Amino acid sequence: MLMPRFGATIRTSMRQCAAMRNIPSMARAATPLASALLSKRWNSTEELANPDAADVRRLDRLRNIGISAHIDSGKTTVTERILYYTGRIKEIHEVRGRDNVGATMDWMELEREKGITIQSAATYAQWGETNLNIIDTPGHVDFTIEVERALRVLDGAVLVLCSVSGVQSQTITVDRQMRRYDVPRISFINKMDRAGANPKRIIEQIRTKLKIPAAALQVPIGAEDAFEGVVDILSNQAIYNRGARGEDIVYGKVP
Questions:
Q1: Pick from 178, 218, 176: nearest CA to 199
Q2: Cβ contacts of residue 201 below 8 Å, gap of 6+?
Q3: Report field, pTM of the whole predicted structure over 0.90
Q4: 122-133 pLDDT, tens digit each
């Protein structure tokens, strides 16, 4: 029953195409649909052959960056701070909706209730002349397919690690997924103000458990309740975040 109908559809389409070819060129151009299709086809071909210089510059400054980690390592919190410090949002809200608002990236009611990321969420920010598409991915093993889906489009990723818990089971899974899609990444050691924070131990875990020859680009100044800032090794200067929300960046000499 399906094949005759399918064949009839093809024959009808072929007759329509033949009739279309017999229409004079001026009449074809006057048909809105045909004109739009022909214009789109030839314009797209010309754009591929001769891309606009403005589009090339725009794409050259565009990056898709993913935030990935084991659950409760602070991915969504880190994303919230990125949005705040880049001026994308005006207020910082906490995970689990402790302030009755919830984090910006936790848009689902269940995510705000449970305090976990269930579905990958995308947003954007601008830093200098670079436009960033930021993708916050889940950290729970039950939603690891969301991480897999997001990794296909990433230019790079930030692997967030807790300064206390370090490399955990889902951290290893995420690292394996990043290797599969050849996604370059940097590691960000989070929660340096927590009791038991030990960044040196986390770097050693990255080397031994993930088999990555990791090296610190920034060294913390103090730890736990004595954490003050970081020393940037590349620029050889100390960086402090001052102000109520750490929005005031102060540079100084290495202590």
A1: 218
A2: 166
A3: no
A4: 888 998 889 999
